[in-house]
Design goal:
single chain; mainly alpha; 16 helices; 3 strands; about 60% helix; TPR-like_helical_dom_sf; SEC-C domain-containing protein
Length: about 325
C-alpha cells in the first residue's frame, strides 16, 4: 500500500475518505484499504455506511470473504440489525471457513452481546477446525484459543485440554496467568474507587499491552517462495522467461528445502515458506511498475508476503510444506 497524505488520526471520516481515494488509485490493494476504511467509518459512528462498504467488498472477488462477512455481522448488530447479523454468523458456522479471524470476530460479537454460550460454541468450532493438538499452533489461531478460554472463564466452566493449551501458549509471553487476566472480577475492579484495586488492575493491563506490543513487533520470517504445481505451470506458460528460475517443479521443491537448510546452517533464524499464486504475483509486479518476467521481483514478492503474515514456519511440525499431505519428516524432511 502506498502512503497518501495522512489525515488527522482522530478524524475517522477524513481517514476513511483518504483510504477510499487510495483504493481507487491502487485497485490491487483495494481489499485491505476498503477494510480499513470501513473500520474508520464504524469509529466515526456511521455504521450504515460501513455496511455499504462491506457489501461493496462482498460483491467482488475477495481473498478472505468470511472475514468481511463476520465484520459486517458485527457491525449490523451494533445498530439494531440483530436478526441479519445472526443469520450471517450462522452462515459462517455452516461454511466453516479456514479463516481464524472470521471465527474470532463472529464469536466476539456474540460475546459482547452476552451470548456467551453461543460464543463458546463458535470459539470451540473454530479451535477444533483449525488447531491440531500436538502440532505447532499457527500464530493467527492464538486468539481463538485465548477467546475460548475467556468465555469459558465467564461461564465458570472447568479447564479442558484446550484451556491447558491456551495457558501454555500464554505463559510463554506473559508473567500474569491467563486465569487472572480473564477473571470476571476484573470488570468490577475497573469501576472500583479503591486505589489498591485500581493499581493492581493497571498492572494487569500493562502486562496485556506489553504482550500486544510484542506481537506487533514480532519479526516476520526470512521466507522462501513456494509455487504449487498448478500455479508454477500457469506462471511459466504466461512468463516463459522465468523457466531459467524454475526448470521443473521437482527441482523447485528441492531447491526450497536445500536453501532453507543452508540458511539454517549459517545461523539464520525465523525461517519460513510463503505460497505464491499467479494473480497475486501479477498484482505485486503491477504495484512495483515492473513486468512479471523480471526474476528480480521474486525475492521481493516473497518478502512482501512474509511481511503480510503469510509465511508458514520452517521446519513444520506436522504435514510437509510442499502440500503432499505427508508428514514433513517422511517427505522433504528426510
Amino acid at each position: 500500500m502506498r502512503p497518501d497524505t495522512p489525515a488527522d488520526p482522530t478524524d475517522h471520516t477524513a481517514e476513511a475518505e483518504r483510504l477510499l481515494r487510495t483504493a481507487a488509485q491502487y485497485p490491487e490493494d483495494a481489499e485491505q484499504l476498503l477494510l480499513h476504511a470501513a473500520a474508520h467509518v464504524e469509529l466515526a459512528g456511521d455504521r450504515p455506511q460501513a455496511t455499504t462498504l462491506y457489501d461493496r467488498l462482498l460483491a467482488g472477488s475477495l481473498e478472505n470473504p468470511a472475514l468481511v462477512r463476520a465484520l459486517k455481522a458485527a457491525n449490523l448488530w451494533e445498530y439494531g440489525h440483530e436478526a441479519e447479523a445472526r443469520a450471517i454468523i450462522d452462515g459462517i458456522r455452516t461454511t466453516a471457513p479456514r479463516s481464524p479471524e472470521a471465527w474470532v470476530i463472529a464469536a466476539e460479537s456474540l460475546e459482547s452481546h452476552d451470548e456467551l454460550a453461543t460464543a463458546h460454541e463458535l470459539f470451540t468450532e473454530g479451535v477444533e477446525l483449525l488447531i491440531v493438538q500436538g502440532e505447532e499452533i499457527p500464530y493467527d489461531c492464538r486468539p481463538l484459543l485465548l477467546g475460548r478460554h475467556r468465555v469459558r472463564r465467564l461461564l465458570a466452566l472447568p479447564h479442558d485440554v484446550w484451556d491447558v493449551l491456551a495457558d501454555d501458549e500464554h505463559s510463554s509471553s506473559s508473567p500474569i496467568s491467563l486465569d487472572e487476566l480473564h477473571d470476571p472480577k476484573r470488570l468490577w475492579a475497573l469501576g472500583s474507587s479503591d486505589p489498591e484495586e485500581l493499581s493492581a488492575e493497571i498492572a494487569r493491563l500493562r502486562a496485556e499491552l506489553g504482550t500486544y506490543r510484542a506481537a506487533l513487533s514480532r519479526p516476520f520470517p526470512v521466507a522462501v517462495l513456494h509455487w504449487p504445481s498448478t500455479e508454477l505451470t500457469e506462471l511459466l506458460s504466461a512468463y516463459p522467461t522465468l523457466t531459467s528460475e524454475y526448470p521443473s517443479h521437482e527441482e523447485h521443491l528441492a531447491t526450497i528445502e536445500s536453501s532453507l537448510r543452508e540458511l539454517a546452517a549459517s545461523g539464520t533464524e525465523n525461517l519460513g515458506i510463503v505460497t505464491a499464486t499467479v494473480p497475486s504475483y501479477e498484482a505485486f509486479a503491477a504495484s512495483e511498475g515492473a513486468s512479471p518476467n523480471d526474476a528480480s521481483l521474486l525475492p521481493q514478492y516473497a518478502t512482501t508476503l512474509a511481511a503480510r503474515g503469510r509465511a508458514m514456519g520452517w521446519p513444520p511440525r506436522g504435514k510437509c510444506w510442499c502440500g503432499s499431505g505427508t508428514p514433513y519428516p517422511e517427505c522433504h524432511g528426510e
